[in-house]
């Protein structure tokens, strides 16, 4: 019997992306309702963490986006379609700035307007994937929101900067 280092032990307790996507539900199928996701993200997390849930959701999305290890933007668009995150359009793709619009957003489409942006997880996910692909530090800022502000799409402005070399 081998002894695990503390790092190995910690890694063994984490659920990896590929493991999380391994779904086996013969009767119910692979999909869960959008309502369940929203209850977790918009109700439970905000109840527990307050407004700090927004930052946590953004960081979680960004870490996930980076960990996916995608090589092309098309791969991300295909993944969003498969996971039904929303209908993604990229109306602006420049060296230091990208605009991403999400229609039928999983987090907020159909909600009554609440007066603030809501899609922090999606912003982080998009920023993480873009950062991983273009190898530039990326920050997403949600400027439009379907359920939050009553817009047609959840729109994210992405600012790209060179990665700091250590």
Automatic annotation (TrEMBL):
<dbReference type="Pfam" id="PF02830">
    <property type="entry name" value="V4R"/>
</dbReference>
<protein>
    <recommendedName>
        <fullName>4-vinyl reductase 4VR domain-containing protein</fullName>
    </recommendedName>
</protein>
<feature type="domain" description="4-vinyl reductase 4VR">
    <location>
        <begin position="97"/>
        <end position="160"/>
    </location>
</feature>
<dbReference type="InterPro" id="IPR004096">
    <property type="entry name" value="V4R"/>
</dbReference>
<dbReference type="InterPro" id="IPR024096">
    <property type="entry name" value="NO_sig/Golgi_transp_ligand-bd"/>
</dbReference>
């Amino acid at each position: 019997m081998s002894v695990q280092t503390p790092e190995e032990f910690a890694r063994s307790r984490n659920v990896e992306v590929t493991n999380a996507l391994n779904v086996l539900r013969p009767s119910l199928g692979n999909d869960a309702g959008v309502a369940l996701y929203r209850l977790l993200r918009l109700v439970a997390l905000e109840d527990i963490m307050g407004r700090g849930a927004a930052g946590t959701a953004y960081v979680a999305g960004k870490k996930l986006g980076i960990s996916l290890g995608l090589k092309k933007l098309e791969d991300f668009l295909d993944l969003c379609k498969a996971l039904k995150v929303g209908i993604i359009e990229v109306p602006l793709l420049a060296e230091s700035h990208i605009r991403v619009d999400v229609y039928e957003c999983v987090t907020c489409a159909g909600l009554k307007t609440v007066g603030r942006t809501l899609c922090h997880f999606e912003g982080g996910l998009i920023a993480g994937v873009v950062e991983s692909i273009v190898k530039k530090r990326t920050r997403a800022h949600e400027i439009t929101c379907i359920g939050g502000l009553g817009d047609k799409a959840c729109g994210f402005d992405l600012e790209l900067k060179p990665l700091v070399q250590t």
